[in-house]
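Fold Annotation — chain and its backbone
Encoding — discrete vocabulary of local shapes
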Amino acid sequence: MLALVLGNRIADPLRRLAAQAAALGRGEPVEPVQTSIREVAESGAALAEASRTIRRREEDLRRLNDALETRVGERTRDLAETNARLIAAATGRERAEAQLRQSQKMEAVGRLTGGVAHDFNNLLTVVLGNLALARRRLGELEEHSPATERIGRGIDNAVEGANRAAILTQRLLAFSRQQPLAPEAVDANRLVAGMSDLLRRTLGEDIEIETVLSGGLWRAHADPNQLESSLLNLAVNARDAMPAGGKLTIETANAYLDEAYAAGREDVDAGQYVLICVSDTGTGMSPEVVTRAFEPFFTTKPTGKGTGLGLSQVYGFARQSGGHAAIYSEPGQGSTVKLYLPRLRDAELPAAAGTQAQPAAPGTGLHTGRGAVVLVVEDEEMVRDFAVTALEEAGCRTIAAGDGPSALALLSAHPEVTLLFTDVVLAGPMNGRELAAAALARRPRLLVLFTTGYTRNAIIHHGRLDEGVNFLGKPYTASALLERISRLLA
């Protein structure tokens, strides 16, 4: 607009100059020409200044536009980053909520299975114990007729069924993290190598077994017997996933789970672990199956082909040991189960547990306790009667009580008692640990052997036996009871 105005200003003097030139050509009188030329010069200078002003303003507008585009770009990136963070937070929250629901479900199932296992252990102690006593008495008969043989086979079958029930109960306790563990320093390489023959016999010739053992492997802190049981469970599961044969690989390695990995998993602590991987080349699992694989009683096998407790036992053992278990699988591509066990440092070496009794000296056998006086404390009458019968048949003298106060009174009345055999969970005002403490205060040299079918109690904390505790888990047989007592007395 400014250029248009200035253009008009210079056009008028130019038109007048042209008119004056035409008049001079006709010989007509004209006004002085200098005024028009000056006006043209002034207008031209003004026009040049206006052009420069326009260019400056165009440059300012361009810079403003560039700055605006830069700010819009930065704001767009900020909004995109904020949106990404919100999406990540929402995803993380959903994952955490799903894990919390899964954890709560597993905890609820664990409490239920723990209570069921406790009741079953008492019942199985009675069943297994009395079957063993009946089998022994049947074997003492001089007459061996077809009838006694049939009775013997029936007893043997009943014992086999009860033993299987005991194994299921143990797996329930493992899943609910209530089995008593005796962790120690474990060389995973040596343990895996030592299981090679057992695995080959168990899995059969169709399964190729390979072990990849890491050099410089740290020691793990775990119960070696339960670790062997877990690895055997994983190997059997892998075999079942390879019905036409395949390859099983067991690897060991040092591993570190960082904060980022632990943050997305409520039940994982960041730190150093000993890793044992069990991989197969089988059918694999879908994502839906993987999310439920550790649940008890969940199985993809046909009815009657599996209990659904193998992987749940592995999961419970890993968690109770302070470790972690994870499954990686794709349909048709096989599966890998990773078992993380806490690393044991030299400064953390545990003291020898009281339950790790040395074998009895040669010749002592089960008759070491003959003549010993044992105070049996058990609030379940059938279990108490079985324990008394088993001990008396082995030549022990027994005194029985159903609660703590009665046991203390009997202990005072019978100074000849040499060993206290007590359940931990007792009816009445005292539990077994409190009874033992009161008894030892009176008789410091008294031997004490605990038993229980439920491990959330006074002698087991965080799934581990207290130091110096002698323990016999339920269900137990007469021979197991006598062997443990004979070792204590020896």
User: Anything to note?
Assistant: The domain at 365-489 is CATH 3.40.50.2300 (Rossmann fold). The chain is about 55% helix and 15% strand.
